[in-house]
Structure formats: structure tokens, C-alpha cells
Amino acid sequence: MVEGCAVVTAPRLVCPYHAWTYALDGRLTGLPRADTFPGLDKSEHGLKRLPTHEAGGLIWFSFDESADFGEAETLARDFEAFDLAGQHLFRRRTHDVRANWKLIMDAFLEGYHIQRLHAGTIAPFFKDGVSTADAIGPHQRSAVGREAGHAALSSSDWATLRSAITYTYQMFPGTVLVVSPDYINLMVLMPQAADRVLVEDFMLIPQASATEKALAHWERGWELLDGGAFAGEDFRACELGQQGLASGSLDRLTLGTLERGIRSFHDAVDRALTPRTG
Length: 278
Ligand SMILES: [Fe+2]
What we know:
The chain is an alpha+beta fold. The protein has 3 domains: about 1-35, no CATH class; about 50-85, no CATH class; about 85-275, Naphthalene 1,2-dioxygenase Alpha Subunit, Chain A, domain 1 (Alpha-Beta Complex), CATH 3.90.380.10. Helix content is about 30%, strand content about 30%. The chain has 6 helices and 12 strands. The chain has helices at about 70-80, 100-105, 115, 160-165, 210-245, 260-275; strands spanning about 10-15, 20-25, 30, 50-55, 60, 90-95, 125-135, 140-145, 165-170, 175-180, 185-195, 195-205. Strands 6-12-11-10-9-8-7 form a 7-stranded antiparallel β-sheet. The protein has a 3-stranded antiparallel β-sheet with strand order 1-2-3, with no helix packed on it. It has a two-stranded antiparallel sheet with strand order 4-5. It is globular and about 75 Å long.
């Protein structure tokens, strides 16, 4: 109904196959040759409605019709503290990554690789292996210690805390939020095949850039994370990991104590894929 990842502004949704036409609320409003569907009640043929919920600046949805979004509300309290809903969109870009989507999640569930893979970009901003994490249902939340951290941790001021800690959220199944000192990256994973995922990266800033200097500052942040650490390093490592896994030669993967989030995530995937009984 809506192809591609570009922003679309349209008064209605038109299926390209037979041109059945739907209003934006999902009602079927028209179909060609309606005479060939005698007795069809349009009100019974709208688009499928999924449970949705707006919280913390995000729209949550579930394919599970009994979803209650209680965990989304818990996470939303954090997002309200970051004023996620009040942020300004600075840039967005969709990356086409030749890797399984779970490898992308893995890359944002451990800080073990920061000093190694990211040695040329963000490693100098972080301490090695200083992080903690917890789980909210199937979602995870982690705090990663930054180099500027030690003096700031007794502060209750958000700007100071954000200079000391990078907060990351791994929302199940495929959304990542990275809260840097003065901007936020939101990544939405859209699996296309077992070995291919589109990752849409949104960089959010507190307000629209008013000056050339501010613009240059945000541009550096965008280049550092989206172009450098994410595309040039994380996503590249995921693609190489995919090639290694696809070779079929690996009989095990070994995780250290800094990588427990990966185990939790894959356990949650297994639970979500296990048919419910009763
Ligand atoms: Fe990374």
C-alpha cells in the first residue's frame, strides 16, 4: 500500500494491484467495478486495525491484538525526561544492510566492541566496559559510561548526566534509541529478508539550528554517528558477521560478561516465536 521509505503525503491509500482505495483511517472508500462484487459491504472490508499506542514521543504498535502497552508506558517516562516528543528532526537516512536484523540489535546490546571496532570514531568518548543494563519486559535499557563521566555522576542535572552516560534503549523487537550528550539517534529496523535489513536512522536535536555554527555542530554529530560509527563500523561488522554465519562453518558463538544483553534479546526472540498454548 505504501512502498519505499520516503515520507508520503497522500489523501488516501490506493492498492496498486486492483486500485481498491482506503481512507487514512483504513475505511474502504471505493473499488473499481463494484458491480462484480455483488452484496459487498464496504464497511466490513477496511484495512486490518492493529493495536497502537502513543507514549513518550513514539507510536507503538503490535501485531498481537491483546497488547496492553504497559511496558511502553514505563519506557515513556524515560523518554519524557529526554523530551523525545519535543525534539526536532535534523536528518534521516535509510541504510540497506546485508545482514540479519538481529545482528544490528546485537551491535547495540553490548559496549564490549566500542574500544575496538570504534577506535577511529567514538571510542575516545567512552570508558572501556563501564555499563549497566536492565530489562522492561522484552525491552532493554542500558547506561554506558563516558570518559567525561566520573565527576558528573552525583549530579541530578540532565545535561550533566548525559555528558557522563550514554543511555541506549533496545525496544523489542527492532528499534534502538541512543541518547548522546546533546542529540538522540532513533533507529528503526525493517527486515527485508533473512540476510537484509533496512535501518532508518533519525537524528533528533533539541531545536532547529539557528546559526551556521550550530548547524556545523549537528552536522559533525551526524557524520560521526550515522556515517562513521553506524554505517562505517557497526553495520559493516554486521555484514561481515552475516557472511561468517552464512558460511555454515560456525558451530558456536561465545559471549562474555559484557554481552549478556545479547543473550537476553535472543531469549526474548525465542519466546516471541514459540507458539502459545492454552
Ligand atoms: Fe557500535
